[in-house]
Amino acid sequence: MTTPIQPALDGTVPVASVSNSHRQAEDYEAWLAEVWPKFIAVAATGRTFTCYQVADENRLSDPPNPQAHWGRLMTLLRDEGYIRTAGWACSDRPTTHHSGVRTWKGTAAARREAAA
Fold first, then answer.
1. How far apart are CA 56 and CA 38, in angstroms?
2. In whole angstroms, what is the distance from residue 69 CA to residue 7 CA?
3. pLDDT digits (tens, 9 = 90+) for 75-111
4. At what angle do helices 108-115 and 28-45 cross, to 10 degrees?
């Protein structure tokens, strides 16, 4: 869904600028193919991270349904054995007002996947 561009008072239409942080994928499978390798790479480092940190650092697009699909991605990565829960932290996402979010850490399976 795109937001209409409001013409200026002189009648000109400004060029729409879409930052990477505000891109939204229209297809879940295509979005998953885009973000999956980035999360595997971060998991392979062994550092503790939040979902938003990885998305922000890699300027990943939002999924078709951000409220559900980010969490689903993390569940898929956990179920596949690439990440495990590491604890909780305050979110860096500007719209969350520092609410608590789960932190994740990569597993040996993620390190093997990145080495392959």
1. 11
2. 34
3. 999 999 999 999 998 888 777 677 889 999 999 888 8
4. 100
Q: Which CATH architecture has domain 26-115?
A: Orthogonal Bundle (1.10)
Instruction: Tokens for 112, please give them.
Output: 């093997």
- Sketch the domain layout of the chain as residue ranges: 26-115
**Among 112, 104, 111, residue whose Cα is nearest residue 77:** 104
Q: In Å, what is the CA distance from 22 to each residue of 41, 49, 109?
A: 22, 21, 31
Q: Is 62 exposed, middle or buried (0-12, 13-18, 19+ CB in 10 A)?
A: middle
